[in-house]
Amino acid sequence: MNTAWQQGGSHPDQPRAHRRSWLAVCCLALWAAALPAMAQTLSPQMVEQFRNLPKSQQESLARQYGVDVDSVLSQLGNGGSATSPTLGQPIEELVPSKPATDKAVAPQRPSDPDGKTERYGRALFDQEVSTFAPTDDAPVPGTYRLGVGDQLMVQLFGTENAEYQLQIGRNGEVNFPKLGTITLSGLTFEDARELIQTRVQQQLIGVESVVSMGRLRAIGIFMAGEVSVPGAFSVSALTTITQALFQAGGVTDIGTLRNIQVKRSGVTVATFDTYDLLLRGDASKDIRLQAGDVVFVPPFDGLVEVQGEVKRPMLYELAGSETMADVLRMAGGLTREAYAAAAILRRQSATGGLVDAITLDLGKPATLARKAVPGDVLLVKESGDALANSVELRGAVYRPGNYGWREGLRVSDLLGDVARDTLPFVDLEYALIVRIINARQDIDILQFQPGQAISESGSAADPLLQARDQVLIFSLPELADIAGDVDRGYQQISTDSEDLLPAGDREESEESSRPGVLESSREVLLQPVVRKLRAQARDMEPVSLVSVSGAVKAPGTYPLVNSTTVAQLVRAAGGLKDSAFLGFAELRTLTEMDGGNIQARYREIDLVTALVEASSPGLKSRDHLTVREIPDWSPTDSINISGEVVFPGEYLIQPGETLSDVIARAGGIASEGFLEGAVFTREIVAEQETARAREFAESIQRSVASSLLTQEQNTTSLAEVQEITDQLRNFEGKGRMLIDLPVALAGDTTADINVTDGDALHIPRRTSTVTVIGEVRRQGTHNLKRNLSLQDYLSLSAGLTNRADSQEIYIVKANGEVRNPQRQLWRFASQGTALEAGDTIVVPVDSTYKESLAVWRDVTQIIYQGLVSIAAVARL
């Protein structure tokens, strides 16, 4: 025995293992194929054989028959028997599962991310949203034909009260107590009910009966072809074709929805088209299935796709003889936006190489009668929103949009009242009419004044409109500029700040922030007009544009209207600014010379005369007007004076005015004013200080990055570098300038400086303190005592810390001047280092305390400069 095994024979234990596998296969197959009509009870021995198989063999058998091992073991229970499948559940174990790549098993979902167009009707069987439930408890019609396994409920009342459950046996009969056997198989439910009631009346005197259906029998059907889950199913005897498809998961992506066949004993007894149900609600051919029926779903014959302006753009299945009218009917018809006169049909050419594009007029009967071919793609385009007999009103109006055009329509018919029809920020001096003048869609421009058109309706100032005209009503240039700044993030108007504004200014701020201001600005409305005028200037035609710059409210490029004058151009630009110089303006004209060269000619014009319409010079293509500003125009420049002056506040200034002049206008210095501690700041200096701090931060980062790339030794950690650069980036310069105010007020013109817009002067109250900051154990402010030295004040602050640099201690005087008592190298060293009222002693950090802090010297220098500027104001 051992020799035979060693020579290739079977192992002595292998026959036993094979028998166990064979028994397990039988166990699994019998459990999988069980139907109510032929239920099989597995013996405990068969169950045990399956349980004793190795896990790998159990999984192999389960994969072969398309089941899950855990579900099989749970169905078998702890040594119990397998039961017949539940109604409506597939006996899919009869058919080994297909590979996961098979399209019929893994159909394409309409929601797949592959972007494919959904096929109409497949969503009917969507298991994720389906509300289908098995029909085991549905009402039974009278035409239902009884069979083996059906159960009837009979209730007797009268001289005898009883209730019986009668089940039709294999011989087709029921055993009725006191009445005997009654043959019911093959009868309809209505006939069986009448038969039982008649027998009860005849054989049981004084007894009436009520007959109803109990549990229905289960029938076995087979789902074949292109269904998601093919195989045998145990279903209710009332199941229809669609219900069977629901239970089989619907059709695959290639399964037909229009030729579903029911085969009975090999003969097709019914054909069902789901489109009849979906499109017309006709379920007459959705017949009930019988035991042994096969529902067969073949592949579809062909599809057409409908795209564009139809109510249901999808893929549709053809049944064989559909026309374009049928295809549109399946797609729900055309939408209101559809352009039926020029639909595009893409169809495979007869040669099979290229795709033909055919233009169809879907309004013609001959086109609708055209036969659809598998693979057709019908595209219905949008008709567009162009209106033939209309005019469009845009800009600073309450009701922009399209209006119907009629003969004799004027601007005043659209804008009858300024308060009712235009927005509060409307510009009543300038508006345009954009008119299409030919088939090339070239435009012509007409300029008018809306205020005059409304007040003088029906006159020449109220232009007549033509069909397809576009009327542009602009907003005031100043408000449009404010709204544009807000939109670009240059200006923020908060609720809190508006509460501080006077009522009139607050209303103007609210008005300028309304949504319509920017949309009705010249920049927005004129941009497409200017672009169109440039584009239509072809074949050496002059472009119909002129431009203006300088002291006008809305400089820029404007359309050249017939006989446009300088006055009209200035009106188009919103008028002159207050700063405009009225003496003369410059007009540039481009002239083409012989040889094609362009020569610019400049001439001075009297602006006052040019603004009078009757004497205003005419303009030509590409003319440019420059309106100069009054020299040194600065009506809003101001300086802020605070602190110990007689009349603190904000003062308007003029070019050439000095600081002493403004102080004199403020009533002079108050009695408690501390001139030596005056703090003078200038905005441009603050901006420069902030910029230098940012540049220093970038320089530090570049230096560290370079050392990392070159692998130089660097003891500064990245965290320390980040801390330093963050402080520098967050530093905001104060802009303090050193001034000698006592000398300036004494009449020394060399110490007196000219003031500029944004300057600020603070005169502190007289003080008698000295402040110590930096690397001391206790920073603070001390009373000035003439007999105390620098070291005494450091001792009052508990002495220096370990990180202090005692050689770099410096003093910031009350006027901002810096002195180093150790080196005596400063400009004012000759004046000594005696401490005075308002002085600040600064103890910097020792850069040698830690190698990585070498850069801190420059950082602290910047930070302390800003700090002492703040301290000077707060302390003094």
Written overview of the protein:
The chain is α+β, with helices and mostly antiparallel strands and 876 residues long. Among the domains are: 11-84; 85-124 and 216-300, Outer membrane lipoprotein wza fold like (Roll), CATH 3.10.560.10; 151-213, 2-Layer Sandwich (wza like fold), CATH 3.30.1950.10; 303-380, Outer membrane lipoprotein wza fold like, CATH 3.10.560; 390-601, no CATH class. Helix content is 28%, strand content 21%. The protein is built from 26 helices and 36 strands. The strands form eight sheets. The protein has a six-stranded mixed β-sheet with strand order 1-8-7-11-9-10, covered by helices on one side. A five-stranded mixed β-sheet has the order 13-12-16-14-15, covered by helices on one side. It has a five-stranded mixed β-sheet with strand order 18-17-21-19-20. The longest helix has 27 residues, at 683-709. The protein is extended and about 140 Å long. Residues 221-297 form the SLBB domain. Residues 304-353, 546-580, 640-673, 770-818 form the Soluble ligand binding domain. It is a multi-pass membrane protein. Residues 76-87 have a biased composition (Polar residues). Residues 139-210 form the Polysaccharide export protein N-terminal domain.
Biggest sheet descriptor = 6 strands, mixed
What's the N-to-C terminus distance? 116 Å
Extract low-pLDDT stretches.
1-43, 78-114, 482-515, 825-832, 870-876
Q: Measured on Cα atoms, how large is the radius of gyration?
A: 49 Å
Q: Tell me how many strands there are.
A: 36
Strand order of the largest sheet: 1-8-7-11-9-10
Please estimate the helix content.
25-40%
Strand content: 15-25%
Query: How many helical elements?
Result: 26
Any idea what the shape is?
extended
Structural class: alpha+beta
Summed over residues and divided by their number, the pLDDT gives a mean of: 79
